[in-house]
Write a structure and sequence with these properties.
CATH architecture of the domain at 310-684: 3-Layer(aba) Sandwich
Subcellular location: Cell membrane; Membrane
CATH superfamily of the domain at 310-684: DD-peptidase/beta-lactamase superfamily
Keywords: Cell membrane, Cell shape, Cell wall biogenesis/degradation, Membrane, Peptidoglycan synthesis, Transmembrane, Transmembrane helix
CATH class of the domain at 310-684: Alpha Beta
InterPro entries: Beta-lactam/transpept, Beta-lactam/transpept-like, PBP_dimer, PBP_dimer_sf, PCN-bd_Tpept
Family: Belongs to the transpeptidase family.
Strand content: 15-25%
Largest sheet: 7 strands, mixed
GO molecular function: penicillin binding; peptidoglycan L,D-transpeptidase activity; serine-type D-Ala-D-Ala carboxypeptidase activity
Length: about 675
């Protein structure tokens, strides 16, 4: 028993010794680890603990594409590679100088038009700030001034002779350095676009020796259909100075590319890509980065799907060119140099084609689709549908009322129609385009008595006000609401004491309107009284996939009714009937060209001719000219296409005034032909 007790006592100290040794080893390892952290990694960990500041670098992402209604790409991105430089908050001018010097040996940049101030800064960096301060400033000046004022004074004392010492090579280095210095800290600033294969190869091999330098994929806008609709698509360029405050508030960088006109500007936020972001931890004292950045991938911008049919668009542009050339061959048509057509679905507002052509002094054509939204003209008798509807609604005429069409005399002024038509009703007035019938409507609206040649109302300008109010319900004289920046509203002639101006407004020869306003006007009549917002963009989609399948639908723009005519439906139907007679009934001003030809699918509408006087830049009278117009829609009983055509500055001679009708004929024929072709293609694909 005693022996067993002794054995137990001997085992106890041994176990305690093992425990003590284990504890000692653990403490030794802990102390060693603390020593490594403090001695070996102490500085790094200290900086990391102080790295309370985050910096973010961004890389531009490609813009979204623009496609037509059938998914054909009309605005694309042409890829290339760009040399970029990303500086940090601790980067010094000397750092960028040496990188720029190396790059100047391997890339070519434009070294012209460098500002003098930049040359002075470069001269200082090249020759050393400290050395030049001692050389150009006195000891007293250095003691008196702070660093900023020292440098400013030093810049002032760099002479033109100093700058002449800069060599061609120096200027090449400076041109590169300027681009490197232009960006913000931690944001990639483009130094040179469209790098050659040789430049990419050399720079790539030396990236480890070029801090901040990188080669990034980039893209320029390309247009597979050439100049067609280019003025509608708009331009993209580096953010203009006048817009920096606006875009800055939306978290843009000053070096960002933005849409500055057209659809590129209208849908900037949609087309804009999501930038790749790199998050850096930095030491606020040294400005140095710690560790690798966290990278958040970017994404290409969303795609726009237009309402435009590019097949129809291109054909309309060709038709305009051909008809202008034919028209100019007629006597006195040497001033006819442009024409416009807008084709739109009158029920949805989808614009299928918006074409404009203008001939330059050399006889070549340029695309001017933009003019269909911004150029306003006196549209002549094409607006008479609005005049008759206003008269019916205000009760100054009633359906079927007869008025005698004969010349009206106001002192020495005579106002008449193109022919004396005798007793005619509202339908005949539209069909044969009676001016006198419209004059009587306007005089009644303005409370003017023709028999006594005097106003019997309190407001001698009442006729202007009434017409402009009701015309605006059709979209005349107001913005159509089209999804495009800064559309024109035309010219409001204001008020005059000349009665002739007021009654001329009723026949479209006072205020001016744009082609897009005219197509909205005729669409409002065609669809039964609903003013629908015109649209150029149909859908927004996620980017197309690699196999060119359409991206996921983000948003589809539904038809938007801006207002409904405050007029009886029977009155609208009455004017619709008059418009049908214009195109089909004997004596109709368009019957000769359209008649009952089935290939046009039973159109209706109104012709117009506005007499205008042309003056030179000095205000000298040149000639009397006509604006030829045509508005219409088809089919009459269920319209799916509406159109407005304007051909300015035609000759007033008889026989030269059919250009607008010829364009209308070919436009309808082309539309229905393409529709049939599309239908057959879809059936074959099924």
């Amino acid at each position: 028993m005693e022996t067993q007790t002794k054995k137990k006592k001997n085992h106890l100290p041994f176990r305690l010794n093992i425990l003590f040794i284990a504890v000692f080893l653990l403490f030794s390892i802990l102390i060693l680890r603390l020593g490594v952290l403090q001695i070996v990694n102490g500085e790094e960990k200290r900086q990391e603990s102080e790295a309370i500041k985050k910096e973010e670098a961004k890389k531009e992402a490609p813009r979204g594409k623009i496609l037509d209604r059938y998914q054909r790409v009309v605005v694309d991105n042409k890829p290339y590679f760009t040399l970029t430089y990303t500086k940090t908050s601790s980067t010094k001018p000397e750092d960028t100088y040496w990188v720029a010097k190396w790059l100047s040996q391997h890339i070519k940049v434009d070294s012209k038009k460098i500002p003098e101030r930049d040359k002075k800064d470069f001269f200082i960096v090249k020759n050393g700030v400290a050395e030049l301060l001692k050389e150009r400033l006195t000891v007293a000046e250095i003691k008196k001034l702070n660093n900023e004022k020292e440098y400013k004074l030093l810049v002032e004392r760099i002479t033109k002779e100093d700058l002449h010492t800069l060599t061609k090579k120096d200027l090449e280095i400076l041109a590169i350095k300027r681009e490197m210095d232009a960006g913000y800290a931690y944001s990639a600033s483009p130094v040179k676009k469209n790098l050659t294969d040789r430049e990419i190869s050399i720079i790539s091999e030396n990236l480890n020796q070029l801090p901040g330098i990188d080669i990034m994929p980039d893209a320029d806008r390309t247009y597979p259909f050439g100049d067609s609709l280019k003025t509608i698509f708009g331009r993209v360029k580096q953010m203009p100075k006048e817009q920096q405050e606006y875009f800055g508030a939306m978290n843009y960088d000053l070096t960002d590319q933005v849409g500055v006109s057209g659809l590129e500007a209208q849908y900037q936020e949609t087309l804009r890509g999501t930038k790749e972001r790199s998050i850096f931890l930095t030491n606020p004292k040294t400005g140095k980065t710690l560790g690798e950045p966290k990278v958040i991938p970017g994404k290409r911008g969303k795609d726009l799907v237009l309402t435009i049919d590019m097949d129809l668009q291109e054909k309309m542009e060709k038709i305009l060119e051909e008809e202008i050339r034919k028209g100019r061959a007629d006597r006195g048509n040497e001033m006819m140099r442009s024409a416009y057509i807008v084709m739109m679905n009158p029920k949805t507002g989808e614009v299928y084609s918006i074409a404009g052509k203008k001939m330059d002094k050399n006889g070549s054509f340029v695309n001017d689709s933009y003019g269909a939204l911004f150029d306003a003209y006196e549209m002549g008798s094409a607006v008479k549908g609005a005049t008759v509807l206003t008269g019916l609604h205000k009760g100054v005429i009633h359906p079927g009322e007869y008025i005698y069409d004969a010349p009206l005399k106001f002192g020495s002024l005579t106002k008449k129609s193109h022919a004396n038509m005798g007793s005619i009703n509202d339908l005949t007035a539209l069909k044969r385009s009676s001016n006198v019938y419209m004059y009587n409507i306007v005089m009644r609206l303005g409370k003017f008595s023709y028999s006594s040649k005097s106003f019997y109302g309190d407001n001698r300008y009442l006729g202007f006000d009434v017409m402009r109010y009701y015309f605006s319900q059709f979209g005349l004289g107001v913005k159509t609401g089209i999804d495009f920046p800064n559309e024109s509203t035309g010219y409001n002639g204001g008020y005059t004491d000349q009665l002739g101006n007021m009654i001329d407004m009723g026949i479209g020869q006072f205020d001016t309107y744009t082609p897009i306003q005219m197509v909205q006007y005729v669409s409002t009549i065609a669809n039964g009284g609903y003013r629908v917002q015109p649209r150029l963009v149909k859908e927004i989609r996620e980017p197309q996939t690699e196999n060119h399948l359409e991206g996921k639908l983000v948003k589809r723009f539904e038809p938007n009714v801006l207002n409904e005519l405050d007029m009886d439906k029977s009155y609208i139907e009455r004017v619709q009937e008059g418009f049908w007679e214009v195109y089909h009934s004997p004596g109709g001003t368009a019957t000769t060209y359209f008649g009952n030809n089935p290939k046009y699918h039973n159109p209706a509408g109104k012709t117009g001719t506005a007499q205008v006087k042309k003056y030179d830049s000095n205000g000298n009278f040149i000639a009397d000219k006509d604006n030829l117009t045509l508005v219409g829609y088809a089919p009459f009983d269920d319209p799916e296409i509406a159109y407005a055509i304007i051909v300015p500055d035609a000759s007033p001679y008889s026989g030269t005034q059919a250009v607008n009708k010829h364009i209308g004929q070919r436009a309808l024929e082309t539309y229905w032909g393409l529709k049939e072709k599309t239908k057959n293609t879809e059936e074959n694909n099924d």
